[in-house]
Design a protein that fits this description.
With 232 residues, the chain is mainly alpha-helical. The chain has helices spanning 4-11, 31-53, 55-72, 84-104, 106-117, 124-141, 148-157, 165-175, 184-187, 196-228. It starts with a helix and ends with a helix.
Amino acid sequence: MATLTGMLGRLAIVAVVLTCGLAPAGAVATPRDVASTHAYLRADYAVLHAVVSKWTSDEARVRKLDLKIQAECPAAGAGSPQSEEEQKLSTEVVGALWATVYGENAKVIQRFAKAVSSLNWSSPTVVHSVRDYTKGLRQMTALTVPDLCADVRTWSTGGFKAAPASTEQFDRHVEAIEVKEVSQRLLAPYEQASDKGLVVRIERLATRYGELEFSRGQSDWNTLLEVLALNQ
């Protein structure tokens, strides 16, 4: 089932998880570890600052999607029952919002991914975490907005029985993408004293992004569901 929690989790585009934790046992920082961590933090701050600064552009892009659907297929799902099949369409709507927002931020995210792709650490865990994170981000920026009108119309024409194959395929693809932020617990052993201020600024931006996201995420989802006359 598509939920606000799931939606916000995937829309947390660039926020590092800045939670307290113990350093990995036996972690010893090498010059490369320190340099890579500093470069990673700088790149993370830059992309997070860019995303927060252009929040109004994200919202404009979402409104454009709403208006497009309103013009092409208003209330296409009118009369639809609240069912497991309907939830597949609702999940597709969430995916459409992800594709819209990640698409709007694709360039800054790609710059971030490129900047950190060549960084290396002595800890395989940190390396894999960074690689997996950037892989997930790239996959999200590659998403295309599905044809919601066509899918909801097909579902309606079929008597609101089985969700279209295209909807199920899109949902499976999106749900298979994992965007797991790099934990501060992993990076902490390799931070310099001069990085502490940067970490604080990142945390503030991450908090601000979370506030913006929470205040608008539910509203954007509900609005698009209402335009299509779908249930949550």
